[in-house]
Amino acid sequence: MLENPNNSDYHIYGIGAALVDTEIEVTDTDLSRLEIEKGVMTLVDPERQQQLVEHLSDHLVASKRASGGSAANTIIAASYFGARTFYSCKVAADENGDFYLRDLEAAGVDYHREIDRTDGTTGKCLVMITPDAERTMNTFLGVSETISVQELHPEAVSNSRFVYIEGYLVTSTSGRAAAIELHKMAQRDNINIALSLSDPAMVEFFRDGLTEMIGSGVDLLFCNQAEAQGFTRTDNLDDAVAELRKIARTFAITRGAQGALVFDGEKCIDIAPHAVTAIDTNGAGDMFAGAFIYALTHNLSYQQAGQLASRASAQVVSQFGPRLRPDQHQQILREVLG
Questions:
Q1: Residue 143 near residue 122 (C-beta atoms within 8 A)
Q2: pLDDT value at residue 114
């Protein structure tokens, strides 16, 4: 178990993009026709996103809007499990921004209520789900692209047990600077630092920036196997594990249907998968991180944290959307922990 300050008001302080998601079902043919790279997050301008929406207008009948962003999904999951959470993000003074903040409040997540909301557009993400359950995201960051150190809340940071940094921030110059400053603040106050590599595309195209964000190291790193091997420039899991130990005190590598591998600072622990029929992988890694950090901040072992995270993420992929219903979190806690 990582050491935690005893006087923390928040279990987790997170920072990341604020995105209003629209999730739709598509086919591989749709992706090919629209020249969309499958399985990764691609940044697009508003014109391109609108073009995609128009081309897929006949698919939008069953779509629904939800607050999202990788770190937000993680923080909201932890909150529904029972963690006290705070989220730093940037939304515009528009209807989507109103919707987003209401959704955070409904999930019990605190946020910086005194920050001025700017003109512009709140970020939007088109999440396309193919029949094999793979998620492909085209994201217009909107004002999230300009998230900066101004959105940090030093008092909340200093009163947290963990800070959680979303790897997607690497695509924004000001966002990357905010992540680096948050890392420094947490180190100064002896607060645990968790970071997610977020996406294979982030590792491929922004590796140097992620290395800056990791700095002298983190206490807990989240990634999937492709991200682990891509970031460490290795071609097998064992070598990736050896390299990750140089930058992270502990880490969790998700492996889809093969479960997960957790390193607790001393040994590697294999976490068994849960057999489910996957229909939508959107949010699986976010849920894993949220459940895992919740467990660590509630005196559970790394083994228990991995088991809870594995079960919760399996539930996410078995239904549409990146998040579970509030009541499902408590059901899973009872199932895994008794």
A1: yes
A2: 79
Contact 177, 145 (CB under 8 A): no
Radius of gyration of the chain (CA): 18
Which residues are 41's β-sheet partners? 137
pLDDT band at 118 (very low <50, low <70, confident <90, very high): confident
200 pLDDT higher than 50: yes
**Each residue's pLDDT tens digit, 275-297:** 888 887 888 999 999 999 999 99
Structure confidence at residue 6 (pLDDT): 38
Report how far residue 321's alpha carbon sits from residue 336's, in angstroms, rounded to the nearest whole number. Answer: 22
Beta strands, E only, the chain: 10-15, 19-25, 41-43, 64-68, 85-88, 109-111, 123-129, 135-140, 160-166, 192-196, 218-224, 248-254, 260-263, 268-271
Q: Domains (ranges, CATH) in the chain?
A: 10-17+70-119+145-337 (3.40.1190.20)
Spell out the residues 6+ positions from residue 7 whose beta carbon is closer than 8 angstroms to its own. Answer: 159
How far is it, in rounded angstroms, from Cα 91 to Cα 84? 22
pLDDT number for residue 8: 66
| 123 CB-contact burial (10 Å; exposed 0-12 / middle 13-18 / buried 19+) | buried
